[in-house]
Amino acid sequence: MERFEEIRDRVKELADSGTDMMEILSIVISMLKERFAHFDWVGIYLLQGKVLSLEAYMGKPTPHERINIKDGICGAAARERKTIVVDDVEKDTRYLTCSPSTRSEIVVPIIRDDEVLGEIDVDSDTLAAFDENDRKGLEMVAEKLAKILKRDYKWEGETR
Q1: Which domains does the chain show, CATH number per domain?
Q2: One-character DSSP codes across 59-96
Q3: What are the angstrom distances between the C-alpha of 139 and each of 61, 79, 101, 108, 119?
Q4: Is the Cα torsion angle 71, 114, 47, 59 positive or negative in sign?
Q5: What is the pTM of this model?
Q6: How many other β-carbons are positioned within 10 Å of the β-carbon of residue 111?
Q7: From CA 141, how far away is CA 56, in angstroms rounded?
Q8: What average pLDDT does range 141-159 have in this prediction?
Q9: Is residue 143 predicted with pLDDT exceeding 50?
Q10: Half-sphere exposure of 86 (CA within 13 A, CB side)
């Protein structure tokens, strides 16, 4: 949990220093990818209308830079407003294939005031890679991101 707390604290430091939101997202992705060996692909999607738009990621390129919230595990997490952990993506019909090596996925919505702002999406090439610590830690990071996204992020000329 300590590594997640370090990331959460770094988000606060960056936000307090006035760092650009997109740079913060890139730093968060980088920290998650570097600190967790089983995080093979890490991305942050932000919700624009009914479409999740990939704003930052590390890992293999993905064909899913925009995902309608009615599609995939990412869409389900946004619609249901809850974290979804899939131990074996081949057994989940909602899974949108990004990489043939992906075996498991966790998607954590970024929520503020009951509004989904986006989500953290992590894929692993290992079956059942994500445990309760991963869920709680990613939810902690998502909660911190929600606070600064709500306060600072501008989308299409409007403050969220």
Answers
A1: 2-154 (3.30.450.40)
A2: SS--S-SEEETTSHHHHHHHHHTS-EEES-GGG-TT--
A3: 24, 16, 25, 6, 10
A4: negative
A5: 0.92
A6: 20
A7: 15
A8: 69
A9: yes
A10: 24
